[in-house]
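As noted in the main text, all predictions were made from sequence alone. Below is one such record, for Putative superfamily III holin-X.
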Amino acid sequence: MSFWGAVGEGRNGLLNAVTEEVGGRVRREIRSAQDDVLGRLRSAGTGLTLLGGAGALGALALGSAAVLVIRVLEAVLPKRLAAFAATVVFGGGAAALGTAGLRELQRAKSRG
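Prediction:
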């Protein structure tokens, strides 16, 4: 219904016309926002997939590096002792990094 047609029908016609116009605009804005959010999610999904692939390849590289360290240690130590030494070094490094990370998080929590 057009505005001038609604004016001719009186107050109810005008109210209906305004309601229809506002409702249409709100629906268009919601649709536009949905399209925007979905577009961003699609882009984010692609980025997250690529990051997941990078993480998987990084894990394989770390595994290969661990094998290399063990093989180098095997040149001077028996196989079992080389594996044990590598495990202790990697485990100790992980524990140190984990402890440092927890301390940093506690500092950030106390600041915030």
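The mean pLDDT is 87. The CA atoms of residues 30 and 110 lie 40 Å apart. These features were considered when defining construct boundaries for the mutagenesis experiments described in Section 2.9.
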